[in-house]
Every structure is written in structure tokens, then in C-alpha cells.
Amino acid sequence: MGYMADRAYDEAIRQEYEANANWDNQFDSITNNLRSKPKNSTMQEVNVTKVQRAPHNDWSSKDGQKFYAFDVFIEGDSVSHQYSAKSEHDPKITTGQQTVVITPSSGNYPPKIKPAAKPKFGGGGKSGDPKSFAASYAKDIAVACINSGIAKSTKQVDALIEHFYQNFLGKIQ
Question: What pLDDT, on a 0 to 100 scale, did the predictor assign at position 17?
């Protein structure tokens, strides 16, 4: 679905729910928040040249879980990337060629790195199927709208699911 079709679909949903004046503002808020999320993390195949402990950067979560910090060095990159693991002796990132997700530095924080998630099997369709991902994300948004009171009828829930399913499917494919 192209940009114009997205806009036409948005407009059709707005017209369908004109009776509920508050719906327009809530729908705009949801879609604008989704569109404004930064998408600066990238998945890359890299050659990790060195992984070393960085104990001065260890930290604990609010529930007391300790995280151990590591500096990860990538071939061709002059700065280290920070990685946190729950185990001091078993980091998931090791030297050699691997696929990782890199998030650039922001403010006082160094660039971050983490292993790319491996596909999980089971539930909802074959792994990696764009329709499965789109349906899952659309369902998550619909549940959030129901829980927050934004979607009050099955028609609104159906419209939300269909809109976001098509939107996500178009972006994935």
C-alpha cells in the first residue's frame, strides 16, 4: 500500500468515526507517536575484533538484577560499543563474524551493541512471515487502545487492527 493509499485509508477511518469527536484526536496521537519513533538502530554483519570487560560500567536494574558491561570493538570502527550481559563470564557477543544490532551514541552514552535476535519458531505462522509480524504488532496496538479506553467498540477495534495490519505489512514488504 503506497503513501496515498495510506492517507486515503486514514481519512476513511476518520470519517467512519466522526460521531465520536474524541476519537480523531486519539487516533492522530497514536499514529503520530508511531511515526515519530526514532529508527536509528541498524542490524549489521560485523567482524568483532575484541570483547573486554568494562567493570566501571556495570549496573543494576530496579529489581536488583546485575548487568555486566563489556566494551566491544569492531573492525574498521574507532570507538568501542557498549554491551551489557547478565553473566560476567558468558557474553553473547564474541570475536569473529556475527550479526548484531548497533545503536549510535546519544548524549553522554556510548554506542550500544547487542546480538541480533535469532528467529523463534511456533505460534501464529511460519517464522519470519511478514503477515505474522504485521498481525502481531496490530494486535498489540489494539490491546493497548482497549486497555487505555481509546477503542470502545468492536468496530473501532476492527478498524484499528485492519489499519495497522495493512500499515505494518506495507512497511515490512
Answer: 58
Calpha distance 51→34 (Å, rounded): 35
Q: If you ran DSSP here, which 8-state letter would residue 105 be given?
A: -
- The domain spans of the chain are 3-37+121-172, 42-115
Residue type, 85: A
pTM reported for the whole predicted model = 0.46
Name the residue type at position 68.
Y
Query: Is beta strand 66-74 parallel, antiparallel or unpaired with respect to 112-115?
Result: unpaired
- For residues 115 and 102, what is the distance between their CA atoms, to the nearest angstrom? 9
* Ranges under pLDDT 50 in the chain: 1, 19, 24, 35-38
Query: For residue 131, how far is the Cα from the chain centroid?
Result: 17
